[in-house]
Design goal:
Blueprint (H helix, E strand, L loop, with lengths): L1 H13 L6 H25 L22 H4 L15 H14 L6 E5 L6 E5 L7
Amino acid sequence: MAEAEALAVTISALLLMPEAVEALKQMILVAWAGGESVMDLRCLLDGRKVPLVKSADKWVVSLSQLPLLLTDGGSVRGNDSGEGVGYSDYIRMFLFFEIGAGNYNADFRLCRRGTPFQTYFVSGRSMCD
């Protein structure tokens, strides 16, 4: 949080717009959270687990690594602590909340094509061969 504020202060000073510090800080935090979400998705699709709720010490992407996600995301790797929720667990939670909400229109099929499970949202036909 302090890193985002320092960067926002620096950018607003360069732009000679001190009133933009808070807006810049919030935009930096949103971009940072987006980068962390990308890393979580990569971990899930690699078959690893991610924490359901993250504290500050569980974040993987630092602010300086954020531009690397756009150019070479392979150099930024998530931690493999083994604790948390895996991809199939997220799918189970999603299905639980969808069925609980009365949404029966979607046809969900879990297909195993290598690792991890890939989910297909199919209407009327199966993509599982």
